[in-house]
Amino acid sequence: MKPFMFAPVFGWLIALPTHAATIAMEDQSQLHPAASPVSATFQPPQESELPDNAYGKLVRQGYALFVDTKRLAPQFVGNGLNCSNCHLDQGRLANSAPLWGAYPMYPAYRKKNDKVNTFAERLQGCFQFSMNGGTPPAADSPEVTALSVYAYWLASKAPLGVELPGRGYPDVAQPAKGYSLARGAEVYKDQCAVCHGAEGQGQKVGDSYVMPPLWGKDSYNWGAGMHRINTAASFIKHNMPLGKGGSLSDEQAWDVAAYLNSHERPQDPRLIEGSIEKTRVKFHANDGVNLYGQTVEGVLIGQGIR
User: What interhelical angle do 54-67 and 142-154 show, nearest 10?
Assistant: First the structure.
């Protein structure tokens, strides 16, 4: 069986295509699941448990697509991101929206689109918003099928319909005094810019991002969940800076989340009649804490980048 993960870092990196190996390095630099008391609650299966048959092959395909989405599914990705940029450790890491915590909870009602969503529909939403991909792949497409099978395999030992510890990005309460863009700019400069660039542009090796862009044309769009300051703060608090999750205070996490989400990014694909205000009222007014459609320092946020 050809190794593709969970072996010593360089072993599975060598097994990947060069492109995938380069991108996956960002996740592996902070993989220490045994050190996390939360991850001890549930452990997804190991490679040694994966059968060497058609099922195992499809799991591998889903894994490759998960860590190298931009290259393997370019027709469905309109920015510079991969699934593994928001779901660290190949979708295995607790408190980073692990796939093993998500798959067993679907079908589920989602307020975002006011309907009961299958897991396939949830993946389609990721392509449309987080990946800024326009028309997402069909529910029965090879891409959605492979990703679904990979998620199923990671969750195959998890109880059905049970919210496991480490699922999602655990909430971080907004500080009593609120957030500050000015403080967030300082946190970003001190803690984030070394990886993501002074202008949030990320870092590339050749044509591929090895550190994801946090705003601008190659980042997530205004419809993505990460545009919510509260969601970004929760992800940042538990996972950033890379390899030092939990080192920022709640205030710092909220401040820097607000700072990066005060910058322009691709337009919400649900834009109503070209109107930011109509789109804000329908989709953003009650969608967590966000700046879409608000004026910040004299600039209307949400105009979008083509």
Answer: 100
Q: With respect to residue 173, please indicate whether it lies within any of the assigned structural domains.
A: no
Terminal Cα-to-Cα distance of the chain (whole angstroms)? 44
Helices of type H across 68-190: 69-72, 88-91, 99-102, 119-125, 142-154, 181-187
Same domain? For 211 and 127 the reply is no
Q: Whole-prediction pTM value?
A: 0.87
pLDDT beneath 50, residues of the chain:
1-39
CATH assignment at residue 121: 1.10.760.10
Determine the Cα–Cα distance for residues 65 and 74; give it in Å rounded to an integer: 11
Q: What gap in Å lies between CA 185 and CA 29, rounded to an integer?
A: 25
Question: What whole-number distance in Å separates Cα of residue 246 and Cα of residue 179?
Answer: 18
pLDDT tens, 53-110?
A: 999 999 999 999 999 999 999 999 999 999 999 999 999 999 999 999 999 999 999 9
Per-residue pLDDT tens for 239-253?
999 999 999 999 999
Considering the domain boundaries, does residue 257 fall inside one?
yes
Give the number of other Cβ atoms within 10 Å of residue 69's Cβ: 26
